[in-house]
Each structure stands twice: as C-alpha cells, then as structure tokens.
Amino acid sequence: MNTASTLRLLRHTSSRLAARPAAGVTNTPLVKTSARLLNTTSSQRITHSPRRKNDSDPYHKVSTDATGTSAGPHEGSASRTDRDIIVEYPDDESELAAHQPPLRGRGGVHFVRTLPTFSLEGRTAVVTGGARGLGLVMGQALVSSGADLAIVDLNKEEGEKQAKELVEMFRRENPDDPEVVPKITAHYCDVSDPESVTECIGEIVDKHGKIDHLVTSAGFTENFAAEIYPYDRMKKLWGVNVDGTYLFATGVARHLMDRNITHGSIVFIGSMSGAIVNVPQPQAPYNAAKAAIRHLAASLAVEWAHAHIRVNCISPGYMLTALTRKILDDKPELNKTWTSLIPVGKMGSPEDLQGAVVYLLSDASRYVTGADLRVDGG
Ligand SMILES: NC(=O)c1ccc[n+]([C@@H]2O[C@H](COP(=O)([O-])OP(=O)(O)OC[C@H]3O[C@@H](n4cnc5c(N)ncnc54)[C@H](O)[C@@H]3O)[C@@H](O)[C@H]2O)c1
C-alpha cells in the first residue's frame, strides 16, 4: 500500500470512528476524552468514551478495570515473588548432596542403531561445572556418544573421582571391546577468573591435544529480594554465570579458529529463567544473568559463523540436582508451586538434557546456530 492510500484509509477509519459510538457504551459517558485525528489535513476531532463500570457483572471485579480498587491480597499472589524466600549458595559445598554416582548407562554403544551424525566419536569435549549435577550427566552423554571428555570444575577432587567412575562404568558396559576406552580427565578452574581459564584451556590441550566442543555448565543461583540482594554476591553470581561463560567460550573459540576446523561447536547452559520470571523465589540477578547467556549465544553464533563455530543455548527448566534438592529440603512447599506451573506436571531429571546436548554439539545440528532450546516440560 502506498503513502497516499494509507492516508486515505486512516482518514476513512478516523471519520467512521468519530461517527460511531463504541459497542456497549451508553450515551452519557463518565469521562470524556478527545484526541486530534492522525489525518493532518483535517481539524475534525474524535471522542473516545471509556466503558462504564457495570457493578452487576460478576466478572467485573477480576477485569483490568478493577486493578487498584478491588484487587485484594489474593489477586496476583500465585504469580508474585516472595521476598521472604532467601537462599544463599553454601560456602561449604559439602552441604550439597554427597558424591553422586554416574547414571547407569544403557549398556553397549552399538546396541541401538542411530543416525551417524549424532556420533561424537573422535571428538574432545569440555564441560565446565562437569563434576556434579547437570554438567556431570551431560558429560556422561558425550562419552556415551563417543567423545573424550575434560571435566572442568572448582572442585577438582570431585572431578577426578567422577572421571574414574565414568571410565569404570564405560568398561563395565562395553566388555566386548576392552581396547576402546574414552580418555576422561579432570581439571581445576575458576571460570570467573581469566587467568585460571587460560591456564585450564592450555592444560586440556596439553593432555588431549585438541578441543572440539564446549559445554558451559558452571553456574549457580541464589535467592534474595532485589532490594536487599548483597552487591558482592550479585557480582559473584554474574562473574561465574556470565563472565565464566564468556571467558571459556572465547578461549575455546580462539583455539578452534587456530585449528581452522569446520565442526567446532559450543553449548551454553542458560535457564528458562532467562526468558520467564520464576515464582515465588526472588532471583532477579540470576534471571538477568541467564538472559545474558542466551543472547550471548545468539551474538557469538553470528560473530563466529565465518569460522564455522556454532554456538547454541540450552535452557533447562526445574531439574532435580544437588542444588534444587537443597532448596526443596529447606522449603518443601516450593515443590507444589513449581510443579503446578509446569505443564507436564513434574520436574525434569538431569538425564532429560542428554539428547539435547548431544544433538546441539554434534553434526546432527550442523545448520543450527544461535538457537535456544528450552527443555522445561512445557
Ligand atoms: N538444576 C536446575 O534446575 C537448573 C535449571 C536451569 C539451569 N540450571 C543451570 O545449570 C547449570 C548447572 O546447574 P546444576 O544444578 O548442575 O548445579 P550444581 O551446583 O549441581 O553444579 C554446578 C557445578 O559447577 C561448579 N562450579 C561452580 N562455580 C564454579 C566456578 N566458578 N568455576 C568452575 N566450576 C564452578 C560446581 O563446583 C559444581 O560442580 C548452572 O548454570 C545452573 O544455573 C540449573
């Protein structure tokens, strides 16, 4: 439609609006407002009469007209944050669940026929935060799909223990081919510290010879109402979640660019909190951090497309891990609220991320970059 006909349509619509009373409106409006027409060639005015309140309508009370006048303490309560919920990430990690054994595998790598592009055979993958929780279970998925693995974590001791267990489990489940054993190593790193990241990437390349894939799962959450959130804790939260993701990704990207390969890929672990506001626990800085991670994936995907490095994000919903277990132990009533807000009616298990991470790292998704895959039960 050209400018002249657009203007004609506006003039036509405006004059019809001026002539016609709004449906259901009486002739004696409570308030009368007027506005100048968009049509610059006419000085004609239109009047707009707001809808008269109808107190006999039983639903009036719950309509937007009612806001501020009849809204009681119940209205909106199920969708609000509760400032009394305070969860501090423990300084002593032993407060979180004790040693977690790796998942029981499915026995035998070649028992099930699969699309070959899903295989990560010959690839080396790095998982930050890989000693526990989602990172550990995703790392196991990468090993089951053929990759060698470097577990990166603040807790190197736990990483080493898990590396050993993953190898033992692989041997138990693949007894027919004792020669084929994945190389799994553990490395200390504080992902929020640039020097530690550079050192760690160097150590991995020394041990494995190369890196092909990265999953950034190091991260944590805390709950404080925004107006009392301790600033130093907020900086630490963003440091690990956002800076840590950025530092590790850029370090690995430089390595991939130096190698000049075409299959490099990276997956960031965001959260559904990067796109929605969780209730009732207040966690504005965490939500903002996860939104930053999601958009970082989209931005780096564009920036590094020329180098054939794909960057995608997985945004999990509520998954049952050491941290969420501790939160639920402290506040059992949260379980009911959370599951009532999940369409499938239950929290996820870390295993539910295995297919997503293998897909996004492998060549099966070679035309997918900058995407955010929500794994959140709806
Ligand atoms: N569990 C959930 O329901 C859920 C949901 C959505 C997103 N996430 C995200 O998934 C990621 C993993 O969560 P999780 O539940 O497995 O947590 P977790 O606490 O079980 O595991 C996190 C791991 O990261 C490590 N880590 C923490 N700070 C680190 C640092 N500075 N440097 C290196 N390693 C560090 C920890 O030692 C731990 O091993 C986090 O980014 C989290 O925000 C979790």
From TrEMBL:
Pfam families per the UniProt record, alphabetical: adh_short_C2
Sorted UniProt keywords: NADP, Oxidoreductase
Stretches for region Disordered: 18-82
Bias type Polar residues, positions: 25-47
Gene3D superfamilies listed in its UniProt record: NAD(P)-binding Rossmann-like Domain (3.40.50.720)
Molecular function via GO: mannitol 2-dehydrogenase (NADP+) activity; oxidoreductase activity, acting on NAD(P)H, oxygen as acceptor
Example GO BP: mannitol metabolic process
Superkingdom of origin: Eukaryota
SUPFAM superfamilies in alphabetical order: NAD(P)-binding Rossmann-fold domains
Biased composition (Basic and acidic residues): 52-63
Family according to the record: Belongs to the short-chain dehydrogenases/reductases (SDR) family.
Name by which UniProt lists this protein: Gluconate 5-dehydrogenase
Species the sequence originates in: Capronia epimyces CBS 606.96
